């Protein structure tokens, strides 16, 4: 046996060398042939392989998590689980991906796991991206077929059962729909049979119909057009259609939108009523990056009420303009420009309010402001201001309103500080200039017969000189000498006319410069008091008292050398008056002042023991943020030397609420007619004060939630692991205000009311806001409104209800939330103008 094995091994070894020799001979023969060709022809012949025009000419990267199967004969590769293919700008992920290199085709499918179809194909190329059930794609031509597509297009989502991809920008859809609901099974969808989709531009369809919660609604159109551009674009603004009992059938907010660019747009809207009322509205937004942005609105309304020929027939032509402009802080290091303008007819916000604040506002203000720095020494502010009262129907315009102020100057300080300052080196001064040109006229005749004499022009120069000194580190002594120099171009002269028994006021156009001066000195400090409670939960209370005392001196400007007051003789005696009454910056006061003022501010805080998971800690709480008392006594006054005592307080309640209180107490007596008498109330009935006015305000947010409710209580049953209680949260924002001002011994009570507004969030999707109040004199509710909002994911329900008053009405709306389809809505409302 052993000899046979040796013999077999030798035979196999001989055969191996014979075969090897034959192969080497063949290789040598081939090389000789090649060399012979080179010698004969004298150059090199390059052999090339023929390449198909449809062959893949770029690198294909692929990977997977589970396994990779290669079919070399058919030139196919199959990737399983978390498969990914990258070719040029194409990225495809899926549960299973098969690549056919011969035909340049890629197939993608999902995977069934536990009866759930997962890892669906996700296709991304250029601006196109979509999710599908399966697809086949030619990576050479860019065409493909996709089944059950879900793709985001602009602000909406495209669904398609069968999709044919033509190129990078165009796809064709059969049996699909469009919606703004991001769910794969949307709450609503606009269905169609066929559609052409141009990526980032538009979707054009045949007949469309609405489907809500898988129920087909009897609402349709012969064709559909959905713009999907992310940039602004022009288009028609669809109106709200309805009927008003007073103004007839209407189309509201019909118009056209001009999307000029991402930086400028224009919306033109109009309202049309069959009984003659109409309105036009224009709004534009503009923006320049790193420079400025703004909004401009111009509205005009023609309102008719009642029937022509009857006593209740009224016609109103009103306008309103709003302009908001804001400069970007990066635009310029020192120059600033801003505008906030509101002006128009007094009746516009009454008959055409855009919000409750418009209706409730009795005054509208405007401001256009420009500010800059000059030579790094002065600050210049130029403003144009406007105030309009809907109650008095007067318009006040200030144009221009200029102020120029210098930086604070320390005349005795060296430029470089090398040692501590001396007391006199804190002396400082600051120059301020103000210039105004005011015009006040009725709104109905504002521009009629306008002349230079109607303007009120004035200048004011102010130079305060201050010195602050600290004594013993605890006392702060402040001193200020103030000079105020006014320039006016007109004054008045009063004379009593005994024939008509009235006062005659003449205007004198003459340049005059009244000057007034004053000096104020004050001393203040801060005292700390502590009280410890030992081992009680309340450990310590800290009381901070800030007392201050000040003295003010001012001369009497009605006597020499000032003589800024004149005397007019009337049947009731001499009447002193200032010729600068009504001047834009006021006038020097009459009577000498030598007054001392007292003020005490208090702050009380506490530290309480609080147990934590790691032990104990001390928590600081504020009991009273501020409690202050102030009054003054004028030694130079001949009567009413003691001023009312003013008490104000502020504190926090339950972390989220702030309580404010103010009280004015007058020490003097009032007779039965309500006239103030120069006698202390204490001398009459041993009562210290009479209440002048009081105000309290409670505001804040109350959040009601409990840990077990917030997180949801979970059942411990093995067969039921669902939450028994849903997440629950109530947020109440509250603002209560009460103000009263009255004269003792009379029935005069200027204001006595309470106002409340708040917001309640029952759940993240349910919220109720309200505004109401009560007038104790009229014994009736003030303006009251209730707003209810329900978030339905891609839809929303809104109810605005004003139950009482002049604007009694309601508006109930169900609509799609997305601005793209905001005109798809159902509205039921009553107009308050129907009751006018």
Describe this structure in words.
The protein is mostly beta strands and 836 residues long. Among the domains are: 60-227, Sandwich (lipopolysaccharide transport protein A fold); 457-468 and 478-619, no CATH class; 620-835, no CATH class. It contains five helices and 55 strands. The strands form six sheets. The chain has a 31-stranded antiparallel β-sheet that branches. It has a 16-stranded antiparallel β-sheet that branches. The longest helix has 40 residues, at 2-41. The model is unreliable at 1-47 and 707-726 (pLDDT under 50).
Quick take:
The protein has a 31-stranded antiparallel beta sheet that branches. It is built from 5 helices and 55 strands.
Estimate the global geometry from the Cα principal axes: elongated
User: Which whole number gives the mean pLDDT?
Assistant: 83
Largest sheet composition:
31 strands, antiparallel
| Number of E-type strands | 55
Count of helix runs:
5
Low-confidence stretches: 1-47, 707-726
Name the beta content range: over 45%
Strand-pairing-aware structural class: mainly beta
Q: How far apart are the first and last residues' alpha carbons, in Å?
A: 127 Å
Determine Rg (CA atoms, Å): 43 Å
> Portion of residues in helices?
under 10%
